[in-house]
Amino acid sequence: MSTKKILLVDDDEDFISAIAAILTAKGYKTKIAYSGIEGYIVGQGFSPDLIILDVNMETANAGFDLNKKFRTHELFKTTPIIMLTGIETLAASNQMIDMYNEMSLNEGFDNNVVMKIINADGTVAVDYLTDSGQKYFLLLDSFLSKPVETDHLLAEIHKFLKD
Question: How far apart are alpha carbons 141 and 126 in whole angstroms?
């Protein structure tokens, strides 16, 4: 049994309660927060070993904003964060990214999309529009789409916690 602590941040109470029940049954200690703001506060008191974070909560990008905020806080700089979200993503090669960036310069181009970028070394990033409409590139530890299979989520958690 693990003694690792996982913070779960998602505004979907049923979904996050189900994930918490699965993780608790596997021996993890969990805390739940239902917004980015609450997640930041709970995280500081809980000191998690890993964070599972939704994107679209009180704003369309609350999870991305919280991820950035965690990365600037000394306590969370190296805490693995799994982004687990239902937003549509587009996996992209470097060639696709170049084409996307070129096309986005065209007037009327709708780039209100999150582009998931998986590099050859396994690192992950997203390119998205902030709530204020600015383009932002964010490096991530992990990015999973809902619905997620339990075994896939547990494997991703194990990859970071090695428990």
Answer: 11
Confidence band (pLDDT; 50, 70, 90) for 69? very high
The two beta strands, 114-118 and 50-53, are unpaired
Q: 6 φ, ψ to 5°?
A: -125, 125
Q: Domain ranges for the chain, please list them.
A: 5-161
Q: Is the CATH number 3.40.50.2300 carried by domain 5-161? A: yes
| Percentage helix, strand, coil for the chain under 3-state DSSP, each rounded to 5 | 35, 25, 35
pTM recorded for the entire structure: 0.80
Residue 146 has a pLDDT of: 87
Residues in CB range of 109: below 8 A, 6 or more apart? 103
